[in-house]
Amino acid sequence: MVDKASPSAEIEEGLDDAGPSLPVILISAAAGIAGGVIGLYLTYTVLGWELAASVFVAVLCASLALGIVGASLSALAGTRAAAANIAMSCGLIVVSLAFLSLCTLSGALVATLIVFFGG
Which of 27, 89, 90, 112 is deepest in the core (most CB within 10 A)? Predict the structure, then answer.
């Protein structure tokens, strides 16, 4: 235990050792996905841009939305773990996309087997 009169007590009180915050991670991941979907819709459907340019803008919008919301919510929560929150949000999006890909591939495989052996 640190004595309150020691200089190290002042240093330890100033440090924030809080880790990443789950609500910040989930909300910023959702904002990142929403930003990407809105960016893709606006550029591809409304403006009629080429697909490659639309995807570029969608990724840019997703990254900006995730970063801005993650940093803002971390600042509002008073935590110094903004980088960890943003990194965990990116990781959550990657894991979600990997799971969606696995489910899509397994569904396509099962549908192929049903059509092939079903009649």
Answer: 89
Domain ranges of the chain: 20-94
Query: What confidence score (pLDDT) does residue 14 get?
Result: 55
In the block, which residue shows the tokens 């929150």? 85
Residue 13 and residue 74 in contact, taking contact as beta carbons nearer than 8 Å: no
Please list, in sequence order, all residues whose beta carbon lies within 8 angstroms of the beta carbon of residue 101, skipping any fewer than 6 positions away. Answer: none
Q: Cα separation of 72 and 21, whole Å?
A: 13
For 18, 69, 72, 81, the CA distances from 92, given in Å and listed in that order, are 20, 15, 18, 16
Those residues of the chain that have pLDDT short of 70 are 1-18, 119
Cα 114 to Cα 80: distance, rounded to the nearest angstrom: 52
**Eight-class DSSP state of 44:** I
- The pLDDT assigned to 75 comes to 87
pTM above 0.85, yes or no: no
Chain centroid to Cα 81, Å, comes to: 15
Residue of 110, 69, 76, 72 whose CA lies nearest to 93? 69
